[in-house]
Each structure stands twice: as structure tokens, then as C-alpha cells.
From TrEMBL:
Species of provenance: Morus notabilis
GO biological process: UMP salvage; uracil salvage
InterPro entries the record matches: PRTase-like, PRTase_dom, UPRT, UPRTase/APRTase
Sorted UniProt keywords: Allosteric enzyme, Glycosyltransferase, GTP-binding, Nucleotide-binding, Transferase
Protein name (Swiss-Prot/TrEMBL): uracil phosphoribosyltransferase
Organism superkingdom: Eukaryota
Domain Phosphoribosyltransferase: 85-292
Cofactor dependence: Mg(2+)
Keyword Transcription: no
EC number: 2.4.2.9
């Protein structure tokens, strides 16, 4: 039996400067175009410079550069969770591949990895700190901008299915550390149980953490993961959740418990059945990724 839910949260398209707030109720086709949307004004960002010393092996031995946080637009409200559904055709393509019950295991896992690559790219667009300066090219001096390797970035895949969605994250994010977190869900009670915890005792100050959980259904698993991470230092605005498919019950829990959190998902489905599976969803992401 499928259950419908109502939820209030902010919905944004990261490839557009416009901001949207969804209506309280989902339609049967929950995408940004079909939801009832209210247009809100956008805001410009600010940067936070600090001087560092930058050395080059070529003709320029030293250059003064600035480290700045590449923040995007201000959130609608710092105490409001934002949900992003990037309107990219490749996201729609890979979600469609994942939905197909005829998709074999190797192709399913590859589709999950490709979807994760795009979602991590979108989530990191305005979030990673950079350093700017000058370097010597073979022809001349050029202004450059790099991701600041001194600023800690962590990826936390929730096993098992999170491994597939996070597979390409290291290729997107330079100088990334991966911390594995195993959480299983009881099929009867739907309550989460932690069976593997490789999180650090304390995340370095200023860490940015990507939590990768393909299926945000009832929300129990991701809430348990976020609680463990927050116990180790990061605040809500230092965490971004990456998922393949999300549903209202999970988004409602996250909105209530973690204001200011950002969630990036391939699609939002309207319902969850009495066994805790997203409808129409894509089935058990772990089983379909690994064939067991």
C-alpha cells in the first residue's frame, strides 16, 4: 500500500540563479517544472580573503594569492533546508536507466556511479574554497585558480549502495578523504542499525562533508548518519547529502532535524509504501548494484 505525504521545503535548480519554493503538496510528477513554484529574488555572494604564500617552480618563485570561499547565492534562509534537483538531461537519463527493472547489475552500478558523478559536481559548484594567483605557462604568465588543498573535504558513503553512488567522487573532488559508514535497516521496524563506523573521532575544523545515500525513503538511515557526523564537529551548513532518489518522509525528517542542510537528488518521487520502499523508485539500490 502506498502512502502519500505532504512536505514543505525549498527547491532550487543549481544551474539557474532563480530560487524556488515548492508548494506544500507533491504532484504525481514531482519535478521542478510540475510543482507549484513561487519565484523569489536572488542574492549575490561575498568572498572572504586571506593572504597566503604561493611558490612556483618556474620563473616566478613567489606570488601573493588569496584564499576565498566560493560560495554561491545566499540561501533563502539559513534555517531552512534546501533541496536541489539539477535539470540536467544526463541526470534524467541515468535515473531512467536505474528505474528499468531489466537493467543488469553491471550497467545499474555504472549508471549509479555516473549519476553520483554529476550530482557531486553540482553540489560542489559553489561550495569549495579556492586559491588564486599566477603561474608560468610555456608562453606567458597566467592568472589561475585552484581548489585549496588545505581545506578538508570528506565523502561519507553509506554502505552498501552508497559505494556505487560515490564511486567517482574522488575524480571530482581533489584532496578528498573517504570515511565509510555501514548502516542497515530492519525490514520489519525500518529502524537503522550501525554495523560499521569508520568516521574520525573529530572532523578537522572547517570540514565540508558529502554524505552519500542513494535512497532517501523514510529517512531513518540518513538521519542516523548525520547525527553521527554532527557529533564529530560539522554543522548543518557544512554537510551536503547526495541521493539518487528522494521521497517526502525523508525530506520532512531532514527539514525538521537539520535546518540549513542542502540535499542534492536525481529525482523526487511522491510516495513510500508500507515496507519503506520509494514508489515508483528503483528497487533495492544495494541489491541491484552488487547482485546480492
Amino acid at each position: 500500500m502506498a502512502m502519500a505525504y505532504s512536505i514543505k521545503f525549498s527547491l532550487r535548480s543549481p544551474s539557474d540563479t532563480r530560487r524556488f519554493v515548492s508548494s506544500p503538496c507533491f504532484s504525481q510528477n514531482p519535478n521542478p517544472q510540475s510543482l507549484l513554484l513561487n519565484l523569489l529574488p536572488s542574492h549575490s555572494s561575498s568572498s572572504f580573503p586571506k593572504k597566503i604564500l604561493y611558490s612556483s617552480a618556474r620563473r616566478r618563485s613567489f606570488a601573493t594569492v588569496k584564499s576565498r570561499m566560493a560560495t554561491g547565492e545566499k540561501p533563502i534562509s539559513e534555517d531552512r533546508m534546501l533541496v536541489f534537483v539539477p535539470p540536467h538531461p544526463l541526470i534524467k537519463h541515468w535515473v531512467s536507466v536505474l528505474r528499468n527493472e531489466q537493467t543488469p547489475c553491471p550497467i545499474f552500478r555504472n549508471a549509479m556511479a555516473e549519476l553520483g558523478r554529476i550530482l557531486v559536481y553540482e553540489a560542489s559548484r559553489d561550495w569549495l574554497p579556492t586559491v588564486v594567483g599566477e603561474i608560468q605557462t610555456p608562453m606567458d604568465v597566467a592568472s589561475v585558480e585552484f581548489i585549496d588543498p588545505r581545506e578538508p573535504v570528506a565523502v561519507v558513503p553509506i554502505l552498501r549502495a552508497g559505494l556505487a553512488l560515490a564511486e567517482h567522487a574522488p575524480s571530482i573532488l581533489p584532496a578528498t578523504k573517504t570515511y565509510h559508514l555501514g548502516i542497515s535497516r530492519d525490514e520489519e521496524t525500518l529502524q537503522p542499525t550501525v554495523y560499521l563506523n569508520k568516521l574520525p573521532e573529530k572532523f578537522p575544523e572547517g570540514s565540508r562533508v558529502f554524505v552519500v545515500d542513494p535512497m532517501l525513503a523514510t529517512g531513518g538511515t540518513v538521519v542516523a548518519a548525520l547525527n553521527l557526523i554532527k557529533e564529530r564537529g560539522p554543522e548543518n551548513n557544512q554537510i551536503k547529502v547526495i541521493s539518487a532518489v528522494a521521497a517526502p518522509p525523508a525530506l520532512q525528517k531532514l527539514s525538521e532535524k537539520f535546518p540549513g542542510l542542502h540535499v542534492y537528488t536525481g529525482i523526487i518521487d511522491p510516495t513510500v509504501n508500507d515496507k519503506g520502499f520509494i514508489i515508483p523508485g528503483l528497487g533495492d539500490a544495494g541489491d541491484r548494484s552488487f547482485g546480492t
